[in-house]
# Entry
Amino acid sequence: MKTSPQSITKPEVLTNSVSSRFSGDRLFQKILSPDIIAPIIVGILAILGWEGFVRIMELPTYLLPGPFLVLQTLIQDWPTLFPALLITLQITIFAFLAATGSGLFIAILFAQSKWIERSFFPYAVILQTTPIVAIAPLIIMWSGNNTFAALVICAWIVAFFPIVSNTTLGLNSVDRDLQNVFKLYKASRWQTLIYLRLPSALPYFLGGLRISGGLSLIGAIVAEFVAGTGGSRSGIAYQILMSSYNLQIPRMFAALLMTTVLGVLIFVALTFLSEYLLRNWHESAIK
# Structure
């Protein structure tokens, strides 16, 4: 008995429409969830309270501008502030990628031998605890005329340690029973590393990435403050400095707002990446 095409396509169309409607309902419910609505309400109340406080106290703009004036200044100075933010974003991305690659490599190196970890891990701690403000002028001087590379190095120093520390902890936190199973089947050291230790350390590594993403931005801004470079290649920190020197406080707040939004976007992007990679097997991401 032959089956007509309509008898096949109608259930498929019905199933697709139901699934699309179900996915749309889930997206709508996620948007209206307390995790999203509550911060928005708090933010709106804070902005209104800030604006009301400025108007009631009649504060001058060079002390504390209102949020609506800051937003107006952001729109007016967008052609100047946005290219500067892109420069800072470039420094942040290069420093973050360098910290990710070098941090993962050194953590794997530490995991191969306790003697290597005990010998070199204290120097990673020293590198983290050294004030970047103190050594940034030296790095800029040693880099010669390549100011961009010097700023990337400064931001890399700030973002490097969380990835090394978290990944090393994850590589050393493998379940002992699973290690015994790999030994029982005579797996080599590299097979154990690739198929057991690295997957087990992935949540720790992704946690380090979320920390280092924000630290890369902070390191880039601090390095720009120390460098104080101007011109067409100046970052957002230079715009903040010049605005504060000229008492253009609304413009300074606008630049700070852009920096804050960029940091939040970096954290959200890395959080989505972490949930995407862990969604099917790790309890921190399973709904």
User: Anything to note?
Assistant: The mean pLDDT is 85. DSSP finds eleven helices and no strands in the chain.
